[in-house]
Amino acid sequence: MRWPSWRRAVKRLGRQGVSARRADPVLRPRRSLGMTAALAFVLCGLGAFTLWGTLQATQATEAQSKALVLDAVFSEASSAVAVQEMQARHYQLEPSVAARARYLESAAQADAALRRAVELSSGAAHDDALRLQAEQSAYRQAADELIVMVTDRNPEAVTQDRLEVTPAYYTLQHDVTEVSRSHHVQAQKLVADLRKVQTRMFAATVVGFAVGLGLVAAIWRVMLGYQRRVLQHAEVSQHQALHDPLTGLANRLLFQRQLEDALDPGGAAPGDQLAVMLIDMNGFKAVNDTLGHQAGDDVLVETGHRLRKVVRDGDTVARLGGDEFAVLLPRVGSVEAAVEIAERATGALRRNYLLPAGSAAVSGSVGMALAHAGTCPEDMLRHADAAMYRAKTSGKGVAVYDPDVDTDQPSRMALFGDLRALLTEGDPEGELVLYYQPQVRLSDATVSAAEALVRWQHPQLGLLSPDAFLYVAETGGLEIPLTYHLMGIAVKQAAKWCAQGHPLTVSVNVSPNCLLDDAFVGQVRSALAEHGLPATLLRLEITESGMTTDPVRAQDVLRRVRRDGVQVSIDDFGTGFSSLNQLKLLSADELKIDKTFVHDLATDPGDAILVRSAIELAHNLGLFVTAEGVEDLTALAMLDELGCDQVQGFALARPVPPDVLMAEIRKAQDTARATLKRPARRDPLSAARAGALNP
């Protein structure tokens, strides 16, 4: 029907009725009845049209609801597949009953999500669901085989992962993402169709029921309310699918979409570059362990707020998962400009987090990659991750991807597996070795102690420095068993020197998490008792920042080991966040000034002032002071003038294996005496033996 013809008919009937009434009063009731019949006819026609329109709207609504349900189901399947892959990777890193249970639970959820998709879909969507279900089965079979191989420590696990599991996962994840996106687009189209149907109904109702505007308004309000609810539901579903529920930031899916759009060569302005930053939180695990998971959530939320403040309009901040964040800089003028933003981000994260559960000190390591011709999103993220690993291991905070450096980084997963196997089996081949760097006492230019520094004689990669594997140990939860293993080696070697008549105090670096381990004090006592080493010849070095996570518990543990006679050293002083009040309460014997303040001591007056202040503060608190990183003799002489008690560094001696340490000690003493004009002693090690017990 066409509304103009209805309108003309009504007008014509009205004109005829008026003329008839004027012409013949007898016909007025009959004509009024005709007008009533005509009006009834119009209303019936309009009612039929309304019923038809309502049916169309209902069908469109049902189709839209089904599309939204499918969109949600496929989105859920995409998330479940990602979680399944994450749990499989977690089991590779830390195979345990709990990790395997989490993997099986996530795999079951992925299977259930795709099964629901098959049950709820029809037509082409049903075919897509069946295809995805088959791909999930293929991936599940390959992943289950990999889990078994990892459990059995099968060396072919890496090959299985690379050739079957990873390709199957990427195929599955790509397809489920594409299917989800297509059904999301279809749902939006149905929303638009529904809006058109409602608009036509509104127009017809207004024209046909001019005298029933009240009823029309009521119906329209109902329909508008329904439409708003549908649109709000669609918007909420879309927002939840693309944003992190805790921080409100973009999630991995949205970040990857925006990265793909930003890499489109047609959208780049001349002279602009695209950069991606990956940010990993340092010390976040300790916040969860000591202050609770709610405090960890608070840190993540506050981290999102801080990152939003340092980026520019148009930049994207995302949480990729856990304590890993990402920033997309679609337009930066230069590498320097991108690095400046990254440094602002690390500066913002270094500020203490004031939480309801207490204060938390964390920081961030930023890896950055800039796009080049032909760069894909996966390459950008992989390069940024490699740079972030280098920034974390070097301690510099920010690193820009360098293909000449980062491509040579050994596989972290392979290193983790090898290191875990060594610590589990007790290192039967002695691959983990300790080098020792002499520490020269300035009062008489003699060596009274040495610091133990770990090296890994890897059978395939050769001799690895600590930077190459300590981060793997920390992130993989191996730092505590590694500390205990190395402490046993150091105590055994110190006992051997003592038996040979060369007692030296050996300094061992202790992971901050060891202070939270109930077995720590027992491990120290057991190592000393097993090898018969006097407790005074062992010195435990704890980083300053490691004391801030749980100061009360740390102080209690340190007081207990000191009561046994073990010495305690506060390492890397000046780089952490400890307050003067905490420093006053610490149970310690030694304070070590970080090398960053010693490196430019001869040329930077500010560093000299800071070092002098640190030495005076330590002496006032009854601590003796060791400066590390002494790389030139001018700095050595200045430290002597400033009142430093002990030094170590390349200018005097390098870390060496234990069998050549005595020769390195003599070399360090000769260099110190020549520089400081100290007289030579008859027995070069007599001072060391005497000072080992009373530094």
Automatic annotation (TrEMBL):
User: GO molecular function: any one?
Assistant: cyclic-guanylate-specific phosphodiesterase activity
Q: Does the keyword NAD apply?
A: no
Its transmembrane ranges are 201-220
Domain EAL intervals:
412-669
Q: Which PROSITE patterns match?
A: EAL, GGDEF
The answer to keyword Transmembrane helix applying to this record is: yes
Query: SUPFAM superfamilies given for it?
Result: EAL domain-like (SSF141868), Nucleotide cyclase (SSF55073)
Q: Name one Pfam family in it.
A: GGDEF
GGDEF domain residues are: 272-403
Residues covered by region (Disordered)? 672-695
Per UniProt, the keywords (alphabetical) are: Membrane, Transmembrane, Transmembrane helix
InterPro entries linked: Cyclic-di-GMP_PDE-like, EAL_dom, EAL_sf, GGDEF_dom, Nucleotide_cyclase, Rev_trsase/Diguanyl_cyclase
- Please identify the protein, giving its name as recorded: EAL domain-containing protein
| Species, as recorded | Catellatospora bangladeshensis
